[in-house]
Fold this protein.
Amino acid sequence: MRGIVSAAGYVPYRRLARAQIAAFLGSGGGQGERAVASHDEDTTTMGTEAARLALRSAPGAVPDALWFATASPAYLDKTNATAIHAALRLPGEVPAFDFGGALRSATGALSAALGGGGCLLVVSADQRDGLPTSSDESAGGDAGAALLVGDNGPGGPVLAEHLGSGWATDEFTDRWRQPGDQRSRVWEERFGETRYLPLGREAWARALKSTGLGAGDVDRVAVTGMHPRAVKALTAKLGLAEGALADDLSATVGQAGCAHPLLVLASVLEDEARGQAEGELGPGRTVALVHLADGADVTVLGTTPALAGWRPARRVTDQVAAGAELPYGRYLSWRGMLTLEPPRRPEPQRVSSSAAWRSGEWKFGFVGSRDRSSGAVHLPPARVAMTGGAFDEMEPLALAGNLGTVVTFTVDRMAYSPSPPIVFAVVDFDAGGRFPVELTDVDADAVAIGDRVEMTFRRLFTADGIHDYFWKARPVRGAGDPASIGRGS
Amino acid sequence: MGSHGIRDQVAIVGMGCTNFGELWDKGLDDLIVDAAKETFGSAGVTKDDVDAYWIGTAQSGMSGITLARPLQLQGKPVTRVENYCTTGSEALRAAAYAVASGAYDMAMAVGAEKVKDSGFQGLNANNPPGDGTARTLTAAAMFSMVAPAYCAKYGVDDEQMTDVLATISAKNHYNGARNPRAQFRREVSKATICASPRVAGRLGVFDCAGVADGAAAAIVVRAADAHRYTDKPIYIKALSFAAGSGSGLIDPGYDYTHFPECEMAARDAYAQAGITDPRHQLAFAEVHDCFTPTELVLMEDLGFAERGTAWKEVLAGAFALDGELPVNPDGGLKSFGHPVGASGLRMFFECWLQLRGEATPERQLHSDRTVALTHNLGGYPGEMVSFVSVVGSEPG
């Protein structure tokens, strides 16, 4: 049996209320909210956060490969998946590949994973931009998602078995973006709709045929795509049973492009798991994912009894509920649409490539050291103990998955930051050790001594085109099981 | 093994100090030449009489050439030293030890910093290439964490702490207003101080040292030779230095209410100088008031007040110009300004003036005590270097 072994979505903390756009500019916007990546997040960090969550809820799983798909890559030429690989502390023999830059790349990776062998970690993230007042700006969203695809085995039971797939492919130009452009362009909506509708129906029919199911037999269906009109029209033509349509999160997260189908699938599986655990839903239900992007991709899965025992590390629903509003002006500045006066302090120097490589375990993995003789924890890792003075008696101590407590904190209004002020805290970890670290996803006036924090992988700044990835701390929010320390998380 | 010091073996026989401030019309070389010229004149010697030189600058220049070129020193041993904000003290320490060792008859320490050419606010470090994981916080933010920690530990409420810090700032401005070389020569009311814009945490602009250009210098000789150059030499009683290991940043036991490096340096300096009761033996103290909470905590680290009581002593005026132990009679970093490499020597300059009775009358202290202390630190709470000296007008 092959299928989904674990799944997770990552929804960044900040939300833009769409009504703010018209209030600010007189037009644009709409109803509901969209998720906004923090100024210190990009697709690589959001993908990392999703992958950490997916691995945390599949503690026994060791991926044989990491695949990362995004339409908004932090780098071209350089593989982005390797930073995720490093943050997850995957062994060097596990390959990490980027999957293209199209809105179809993540479903493509998922298809390849379901059709392939081994335990494959399929990660996707996207950050959707548009010019102010555009529908892309308001309808888009930022998010990450990760699916662990594998067979029943030591890595964990299959939660949702792959029952069948169907595809339809066509070359037509509905939505496009040149490398380096921040905005996408779209053709007249009606044209795309007339293409997507038959393509979606063809793929749907092929998928159903491959499973031997009828349209009304599918218990839960998610339809995604960056062409809302086509999505709506297709949904009406699929012949779905009453109540089968899943929330596509467009009202709360927005369409997170390439990553969106995986995010919605993770959310659907979480709902199924909760339904099973609470006895409302049985196993053996059929779940389908339909994604429209330069054709149509349909994946049909069947839930297994194992789903009842699966504990998602942090549900998409809970992350959606835990968000906090971001003023539109700040949103524009984070997206580079509005340039604010920076503090009159020097900008950071570019990171040294060789220094970053040498300290990879620390920088990407947040692994310190603990002195065997004294137990003293060193962050960053050291060779000589601060207590007892032993030389080279250190063992690595991974703390990325550990929680900490704010001992004291300050707000730095003068230091350089892409989004001042810097909120900075001295954090004591539950497993031992102290690290003074920047806080993120917080408002300066809401921090208090004693706050509980968790580590999150972020992009601190970019200089000379080199992104500086490292860890920050953020308040523990929402439900889930943040205290468990999964491998690599 | 042991730290023995060089009590009364070496004396300062000449000093100079430029005005500190935003000296747009003066480059580093001008500052160095001005301070050195005054110092040579003060000791009545020429540059050729000096056998060895140390130039302290944190980041205005590299190597001894930074001093040798502007002074046109020919073939002299000239060494640049750097030790964060204790750089100037470190230059004097090197010069004094060189003379005490017998290696040289006369040595000179110059401290200089041209800060205001960066175009940025505050002080800025030029860091070596790194892995991008180092803190980018300002010093103000690091030191701002001291005040709330102190409040929590000793039950001082916010309002009281605000008053304490404003008292320190107002006192240093009061003193600086009486010092013609100071950057800020204006008294500032506590109300103005409290209303100033926040920089980091609860610290406002008036809680922070003045950012200034400047230079200061001293010439030292063996104590036995001192009277050849001046009737009123200043004797070095103690030079003490402690570098922390940086473990305070990562040690869960550190509570941000004291600076162990300063306590260690003070203990060593008092042992060298034979000081047993600093509060009642010192005529005054020049301390590193980079931020107001720093001066508060230093009153305890240096043994001027019991733990947890310095805030009350501050409010009672114990460290005011007319208090029992005046602290920073020259205005301190707050008001005199803080050209990093020069600050340590500037502290000695105030000792030079006060102990010789040459300070401006408005701030000249009249004490029967003959020893004074300078304290200079660099770095941050948890990761600090600290220097303490004791000097006096009488040998033995």
In short: The first helix of chain B runs from residue 28 to 43.
